[in-house]
Amino acid sequence: MSAAAAPQGANGADIVALGEAMIEFNQARADDPRTYLQGFGGDTSNMAIAAARVGARAGYVTHVGDDAFGRMLLALWKEEGVSTAGVATDAAAPTGVYFVTHGPQGHEFSYLRAGSAASRMTPATLPRALIRGAKILHVSGISQAISATACDASLAAMDEARAAGVRVSYDTNLRLKLWPLPRARAVILTSLARCDFCVPSQIVKSRLEPSDPTIAPRVLAAYTPPTSRAGSSSREATDASASGKLAPQRIEGGSTANSTRVRSS
């Protein structure tokens, strides 16, 4: 496993996000169900890209496969100005892929992510110096759900950040298809105790009901997901908006008007 080279001048980052990015194939037209449009997915990757677009020095921590899809993601981050100093290439595991199909009941996601490179992240593979040098670390519940070792890595990253005085942002992004509710509840509540900012979904607020008075103030209870632009999902808009809430704390100027062209997964 090797670390990908960082773009010139991007050896550090003010906002570092950790998670899994994936390649998306989205069914393009109802009258041609075999034609798919290729895109990019990953909630934490979305956030890093959106932060970079409004002027923040953003970096990403993940693993990708030593394959064409992994190289496509590396090219995407380079194009968007996101540091890949924290990205490792795993020759023994693939980059995750998912498909989006559309029918009478709406869109459906089909994942090929079991055993993906990102799911093999562990506390031992974390780029701890990069995390300690950041001002904000951003983590997602999806990153914790993809495997036990990735969950351990995310919690270790949060602990590393807090020990270094780095503020922690947490997006619960609860996906019950990825893990059972009891485990999700336990991990999310553990993470809430470690974070400084949290953007919960309505399902999280209704299912978890955190009672610890030290946790509740960290939850942005009044947060309302923004209306998405045409061609983007409300989840994409949420990822972009979360970056907009964090980036202005570290930079001056910039606009959150640009939406990402990638999707949460």
Structure explained in plain terms:
The chain is α/β, with parallel strands linked by helices. It has one domain: Ribokinase (UDP-N-acetylmuramoyl-L-alanine:D-glutamate ligase), CATH 3.40.1190.20. Helices cover 31% and strands 26% of the residues. The chain has 8 helices and 12 strands. The protein has helices at 43-53, 68-80, 128-132, 141-145, 148-163, 181-192, 202-208, 234-246, and strands at residues 2-3, 15-18, 22-29, 32-41, 58-65, 83-90, 97-103, 106-112, 136-140, 167-171, 197-199, 262-263. The strands form 2 sheets. A 7-stranded mixed β-sheet has the order 1-6-5-2-9-10-11, with helices on both faces. A 5-stranded mixed β-sheet has the order 8-7-3-4-12. Helix 6 links the parallel strand 10 and strand 11. Helix 1 crosses helix 8 (234-246). It is globular, with a radius of gyration of 17 Å.
Provide key terms for this protein:
265 residues; alpha/beta; UDP-N-acetylmuramoyl-L-alanine:D-glutamate ligase; 7-stranded mixed β-sheet; 5-stranded mixed β-sheet; 31% helix; 26% strand; disordered N terminus
Which word captures the global form? Answer: globular
Largest sheet: 7 strands, mixed
Q: What count of helical segments does DSSP give?
A: 8
Assign the CATH class: Alpha Beta
- The domain count comes to 1
Give the N-terminus to C-terminus distance in angstroms.
24 Å
- What structural class do the secondary elements suggest? alpha/beta
- As a percent range, the share of helical residues equals 25-40%
- Give me the CATH superfamily: Ribokinase
Report the radius of gyration as a whole number of Å: 17 Å
Let me know the average pLDDT: 80
CATH architecture: 3-Layer(aba) Sandwich
Which segments are poorly predicted (pLDDT under 50) over 5 or more consecutive residues? 3-10, 220-238, 247-261
- Element-level helix/strand string: EEEEHEHEEEHEHHEHEHHE
Number of strands: 12
